[in-house]
Amino acid sequence: MKKYDAIIIGAGHNGLTNATYLAKAGLNTLVIEKNDYIGGAAVTRELHEGWFYSNCSYVCSMMRQSIHRDLNLTKHGLILVPYLGTVTFGDSGDTISAYHSEGPYYNELRARSPHDADAMFRLQADLNRYAQLIRKTLMRTPPDPTSFKPRDVKELIFLAKEFGALGEQEIYEYIRFFTMSAAEFLDDYFEDDLIKAAMASPGIIGTALGVYSPGSAYILLHHVMGDVDGSIGAWGLARGGMGAISHAIAGALQEHGGEIRTNSPVQKIIVKNKKAVGVVLESGEEVYASIIVSNLDAKRTFTKIMEKDDLPDGIYDKAKNFKIRGSSGKVNIALSALPKFNNLPENKYINRGGQNFSGSLKTMEKAYDCWKRGTWSDDPFIESVIPSAWDPTVAPPGKHWMTNFIQYCPAELADGPWTPEKRDQFGQTVVDKIERYSPGFKDLIVHMEVRTPHEIEKEIGLTEGNIFQGELTIDQLLFNRPFPGYSQYRMPVKNMYMCGSSTHPGGGVSSACGANSAREILMDLRKPNTVPEDDCYDE
Fold this sequence. Notes:
Elements: E1 3-9, H1 13-24, E2 29-32, E3 45-48, E4 51-53, H2 65-70, E5 80-82, E6 85-89, E7 95-99, H3 102-112, H4 114-135, H5 150-164, H6 168-179, H7 182-187, H8 193-200, H9 216-222, E8 227-228, E9 231-232, E10 236-238, H10 243-255, E11 259-261, E12 266-272, E13 275-281, E14 286-294, H11 298-304, H12 315-320, E15 328-335, H13 348-351, E16 354-357, H14 361-372, E17 381-385, E18 400-407, H15 420-437, E19 445-451, H16 453-460, E20 496-498, H17 512-524
Parallel strand pairs: 1-2, 1-14, 2-11, 6-16, 14-20
Antiparallel strand pairs: 3-4, 5-10, 6-7, 8-9, 12-13, 13-14, 15-18, 15-19, 16-17, 17-18
């Protein structure tokens, strides 16, 4: 029987990244995936003939450019292009357009509020300053604050030095920022409610928090920590859909001799003498390796594919209590033509960008209130992108597809489990809202895929459909992620590691979790480090 140096459970982008760096160091590496395709949430799937959906994750910003270059992902087909603008629709149909170019964006804001136009530059400067500090931690292993090991002490000194460089007033503001809601934070800058709503939307994406919930300001920051083509905070699209990212990483993995095995669900991790030694597949087959790495979320790893008796006391309960509430849905729509929206000028930079159907802060908070009651709002927050407007590879000629990300969609409904009928009702609610801003939209629909947290969990294995593999609240960040004592990618069973978004730095298509975990594994094995340093230190 063949024995591998390392088995990685789950062929999401972090699992593939982890495997690539291990293979690059010479390890005989196998990635095991339950589905018949790779990518996890970063996938492109032909769910209707001729239309290729990024039916889970849909935009990219946080991909670490150092990894992109080091693995030569462009050689393997990855092209990221920033989309050029976003329009936000208010409750009454009024709009505010955010352009990638500062000049037109400033003029757009000034026409609505001269005060807020000037405040936007102050906000962007403050967010970039906060982001620069956080960005420097993305590809570093969190220190153990209880340890006196030289490495941990050195890392704590690094963090203290970076934090101290902010200055007294900035430190005060920074600490305050982490405890604030997105709405409170934006109140410090803006007067106009629609501008606030437009800026608040990243603060609720993928979270079980509302715009007035303490901690949602950080989520806003989390979404501007990435970059596309060196533009910090920019969002981009992958040509060919998000699956192009996963397939590019897989190409790099195979270039270094790594293997990928699909259609192979893992039933459990084999533990002998308190060491992880292999996995049992649902088929009954056993596959052995010196190192076992889980790309699954913390809750799924420790409560689904591990025996409670194989874990130290308390770990099972910590995993069970790990906050991972689902709050997001997806509706992917094939269209016969490019939709037209009310009150939107004929401008290719906006028409080919994104659309936020957010309404006001009040409307967004009401949608959150519905989620708390175990239902979805009849006036949901929708973030839409039409990738086919610039990428002709994802739809037939002259046709389009639209991806819609919805807050808030409960993982558990107050009136009982999700059913196909309830799923379809949810999807119809989304279509009805888009129709309000784009009359005739329904007539353009060729095909529609509706995904509640139930579908997302069933297909991808994300507990409750949580896109971050665990909430990004302050108690689940840095050395608290996934839980205190296990933030350095080593798990409580010897020879077992984690590499998914339940680890630092958290969710988003960044590859940082997978790369960081690989660096720790190679250090433990006393192998040369193949993981590059991040590229944000000279900014």
